[in-house]
Amino acid sequence: FITMLILSVLSSSLKNATGYRYIILPPFGALMTLQYGLTAAPASQPRNALYGQIVSVSIALVVNTFIPSTSYSRVPLTTALAIASMCKLGVIHPPAGAAAALFASDDRFDVAFLGLFLLGNLIAISTAILINNLND
Length: 136
Known about the structure:
Blueprint: H1 2-18, H2 26-37, H3 46-66, H4 74-89, H5 94-104, H6 111-135
Helix pairs in contact: 1-6, 2-5, 2-6, 3-4, 3-5, 3-6, 4-5
């Protein structure tokens, strides 16, 4: 609750201040499930969460520059490349696959959204580390 509350408030504040920039919240629901429900799973670890998101969303932004948003192949190709890359690099993180699909689905998601998204991930990871370690 606390992590999503922080991210929601920050996202709303950004949207009110900029008019169009915000933190994309849907993949964070899956991230919270991993961080608080499956804490021991490799996909839940901070390394996988952060690097998996960086790899996946970066791939989405690169694919977006070469394949137009009107193409039916952009989202499936981006998602497949993101998953294959995470597997190859050993940083599998399921919410990152969803983030890649989301970023590929619309041209408005750019490098600024990537920065905000990664900021949200850092906040979520830091909060989860703090809360999970207080429970031990």
